[in-house]
Amino acid sequence: ILSDHHFWGGLRASLELGRICRVFNRGLSMHSNSHVGISLAAMAHLAAATPNLTYACDTHYPWQSEEVVAGGRRRFDDGAYRVTDEPGLGVELDRDALARLHRQYVECGLTERNDEIEMQKVQPDWKFEAVRW
């Protein structure tokens, strides 16, 4: 099972998914697409709190060139991200960077995501079904 804390209802719902996978003896991993440091930290903390991860977590974070947390991009050492012991998620928001990236987002004109249209290019009868744990 590939969980995604953005899509499957957040951190608590993703923890519940982990418990369900454990009950039914299903493998579990995590995925997160196009996130910045806040989301990466959330996924890392979620992974640390989910004892039955059977596969490595999948992140697109290394592809991002911008960051909204103070101190810049988060580090990976030998393919691993270290969970901090700082309060909360262990990251602090860089509000100037967030404002700059928000302006870029609004000005680019691509403010709506429609996965159904993209999927139908490959499979014309594909329909999006919003499910949540």
CATH superfamily: Enolase-like C-terminal domain
CATH architecture tag: Alpha-Beta Barrel
Distance between the termini: 13 Å
Largest sheet: 3 strands, parallel
The shape, in one word, is: flat
Rg measurement, Å? 17 Å
Low-confidence stretches: none
By secondary-structure content and strand pairing, the structural class works out as mainly alpha
> Helix amount, in percent?
25-40%
In N-to-C order, the SSE pattern is EHEHEHH
Number of helices: 4
Give the total of domains.
Answer: 1
Total count of strands: 3
Strand content: 5-15%
CATH class type: Alpha Beta
Q: Biggest sheet, strands in spatial order?
A: 1-2-3
CATH topology: TIM Barrel
Tell me what you see in this structure.
It is a single chain. The protein is mainly alpha-helical and 133 residues long. The chain has a single domain (2-120), classed as Alpha-Beta Barrel (TIM Barrel), CATH 3.20.20. The protein has helices at residues 11-23, 37-48, 95-108, 115-120; strands at residues 2-3, 29-32, 58-59. Strands 1-2-3 form a 3-stranded parallel sheet, covered by helices on one side. The mean pLDDT is 89.
Features:
133 residues, mainly alpha, TIM Barrel, 3-stranded parallel beta sheet, 6% strand, flat
